[in-house]
Amino acid sequence: MPTRLPPLATLQAFEAAVRHQSYTRAAQELALTHGAISHHVSALEERLGLRLFERDGNRMVPTEHGRLLVVKVRQALGLLERGFARAGRDEHVSLAVSVLPALASRWLAPRLPNFAEQHPDIDLCLDVRSGVADLAAGDADAAIRYGPGGWPDVQQVRLMGDELLPVCAPHYRGGRLPASVAELGDCTLLRNPWVPWEPWLHAAGAEWREPKRGPVCTDSAVLLDMAATGLGVALARRVFDDGDLRSGRLVRVLDISVPDPSSYFFVWRADHPQIDAIHLLRDWLLEQVLPTT
Amino acid sequence: MPTRLPPLATLQAFEAAVRHQSYTRAAQELALTHGAISHHVSALEERLGLRLFERDGNRMVPTEHGRLLVVKVRQALGLLERGFARAGRDEHVSLAVSVLPALASRWLAPRLPNFAEQHPDIDLCLDVRSGVADLAAGDADAAIRYGPGGWPDVQQVRLMGDELLPVCAPHYRGGRLPASVAELGDCTLLRNPWVPWEPWLHAAGAEWREPKRGPVCTDSAVLLDMAATGLGVALARRVFDDGDLRSGRLVRVLDISVPDPSSYFFVWRADHPQIDAIHLLRDWLLEQVLPTT
DNA sequence: CGCCGGTTGTGAGCCGAATTCACAACCAAG
DNA sequence: CTTGGTTGTGAATTCGGCTCACAACCGGCG
């Protein structure tokens, strides 16, 4: 399996040849003879089983295959050149990212090692807060926000939507878990003011409304902890309760779920001085989220 | 100039060594001896003047520099491997992009050759229309929209904001161009229903309001053509009149400009089957726009 | 047409670099 | 301390890239 890749010199020769549309000029640039370029290109063509150039008079014009290939080659060479030019200088970048507590602990934290590995030159500083960080004021360099989207003055992409479903501790009420929506009315509904029960109750066909009293917590993770102690039934998002469901700390109640009308968004400002790092973070987040869509 | 890059075999050896944290295992993977790996790594270290590995017992653990470097190397190698694996198969992708007429002709069209060169595997199909394409209905794969942002159910990034400033033909009114806001009141104001004069008039301190009569055109490019014929004064966006101003076909009137409250946005759907190509298009658009911010 | 300055294709041979080999040094664990 | 593992290193070998020289080809021009 070793080196099924052509040598670098070959790639550089190919790239220069495409750029100049001429072997001799490419050879001049690389301080070689035209013969070297010719050998390189024919070696490449033989290896791929494809013609990469066609003669047009005394110009060498790349074929379709050649044009497709040279893009990747150029990107790779550029990456290497930049990588080696910068090697030695440590150009660490620090990004302050505002994140909601629940998402930070249950979703982001376990994935951070992966980020650190893929982007060792970016130090993330998680600014965990319940409120909304004002990016314009410099509260943070970027943020993950929860809501309907459409914030003014910032760039934004939706990271993930979710489903809402009720969960509680398996030993809640001595194990006599509610089996119907009506029974659920006798339970303590744990509430998060940002995640109302209304849409779910409506979808489940409940004839009663969300109670105005009882335990309230503004943080979803803590709300789940409360549910796990047997305090009541919480309306949970999949992202957060996945681990708890698997470990048996929590169980689903009834099998009705509704799409969460709110989503998580990554937001940033286009004029940020370290926009490159922010884009890398954005793309990484989108990758993490890809399976979920 | 030539090959200031280390040979590919060296990079592969380095990468494998980082991955295995062991020269001998890296050597096994590449079907080489440990000596080869050792030589490769020390050649790299000497070339860079940096230590890339440190011994930890009988493990070789990469230094900070090593970890930073290996990221670029991995990306580059990955790019090449994928590039060469796919070479030959033509995996062309076609994207239908809905664009407003003015933007398509004055801004996007002249940049398309650049896109074609950078992404020869993506065929753009410009769906030029004045209305809003419904991405969910499959009207297009992505779109560039003009407005305040915050559309539901789509991903979006702001491409560019702009300034609004009045322009007219240099020979308008026989060359007696309006020199004050009051004088502008005697001129014919060409109107685009999507780009009201109000904010500009307000900023300029006009004591009169936008006329309800006179020429109207829903397309900014055509509106500028109308102004160029001497029909009246148009409220133009920089993106569009730049060329006209340089060529002298149009001149600025008064030197007051206001930020355009609307912007151009690139919008797409995260669940699109060709999301990779869409991301490439998005990133390319953002690059085009970078100087403008 | 036929020459000329330009290009690319090709095979032989040279030279340098990548790899191996063999041995020394070192480490961790028994 | 020995044993089985690792890495460092210099010399020998092998392999591949490059040049060189010549043939083939193209476009233009007299």
Automatic annotation (TrEMBL), chains A, B:
Single GO term (MF): DNA-binding transcription factor activity
Keywords, comma-separated and alphabetical: DNA-binding, Transcription, Transcription regulation
Pfam families reported for this sequence: HTH_1 (PF00126), LysR_substrate (PF03466)
Domain of life: Bacteria
Ranges where the HTH lysR-type domain occurs: 6-63
GO biological process, any: DNA-templated transcription
Keyword Transcription regulation recorded: yes
PANTHER family: HTH-TYPE TRANSCRIPTIONAL REGULATOR, TRANSCRIPTIONAL REGULATOR-RELATED
UniProt record similarity statement: Belongs to the LysR transcriptional regulatory family.
Protein name: LysR family transcriptional regulator
